Amino acid sequence: MRNLRQWYTEEFKDALLQNPPVWFKSFLFCELVFQLPFFPIATYAFFKGGCRWIRTPAIIYSVQTMTTLIPILSTVLLEDFSNASCFKGQGPKTFHERLFLISVYMPYFLIPLILLLFMLQNPYYKSEEKRKKK
Amino acid sequence: MRNLRQWYTEEFKDALLQNPPVWFKSFLFCELVFQLPFFPIATYAFFKGGCRWIRTPAIIYSVQTMTTLIPILSTVLLEDFSNASCFKGQGPKTFHERLFLISVYMPYFLIPLILLLFMLQNPYYKSEEKRKKK
């Protein structure tokens, strides 16, 4: 596992995983505590079907995950990874390397976004909401 | 305004506002784009009353705001603010100074938490949800 991580961080120039800052570690903590428990619950709800109660947990999960990706993607795209910076020359240098690393993290933003839009737009899940408005 | 900010950052040893890292700036961006527009909408909904449709926006707002506070509070509590660190000696040194700064940021976590719990627990807003489960 450590070799895999070393290969990944060097290959993808992922400075965040190489020397995780405190803020990044706090998100790993979030993932363990709030996001992982959601997966079995959601899997159950979607396989069983007809579980409207999954709407609110799914909205909370997707908003929380998407929010954690905002600083991660911003850092990958805009952070100063020069030798003078906190990352001491680790991390992507060229714009191409930054985009490469963004493509690694982007799915963790897009999949919750799709889930959120699905929960907000799907007539089955929002049907009650609609009635509330009337 | 700049004097006020200077006074605050020096008085409260807020290294995040003194030299905002990219990840912290991305949250300031979130606040402007997603959180500020929520306030007039929520004010309208709560003053008008009976607006069940505010439930989902309120949940999204509070989860998003609380999530941004996790790395901020973690950094204030656990980050290395020594001269050798990225913050170059700026920021709270003693545990008391850290707690003092946490007390500044804590309301931005607690108020959304209260709003979230209110929206999840209040029988008026969750009444439809309940019916869904049955």
Q: What do these coordinates show?
A:
The structure is a homodimer of 134-residue chains. Chain A is mainly alpha-helical and 134 residues long. Chain A contains 7 helices and no strands. Chain A is elongated and about 55 Å long. The interface between A and B is medium-sized, with 35 and 34 residues.
Supply the helix-strand structural class of chain A: mainly alpha
> If you average the pLDDT of chain A, what whole number results?
88
Strand content range of chain A = under 5%
Q: Which protein chains are joined by the largest interface, and how many residues does each one contribute?
A: A-B, 35 and 34 residues
Q: Regions of chain A with pLDDT < 50 over 5+ consecutive residues?
A: none
Major pleated sheet of chain A: none
Number of domains of chain A: 1
The number of distinct helices of chain A, counting runs of at least 4 residues, comes to 7
The proportion of residues forming helix of chain A, as a percent range, comes to over 70%
For this entry, what is the oligomeric state of its chains? homodimer
- Gyration radius from CA atoms of chain A, angstroms: 18 Å
* Overall spatial form of chain A: elongated
Strand element count of chain A: 0
Distance between the termini of chain A: 55 Å
How are helices and strands ordered from N to C of chain A? Answer: HHHHHHH
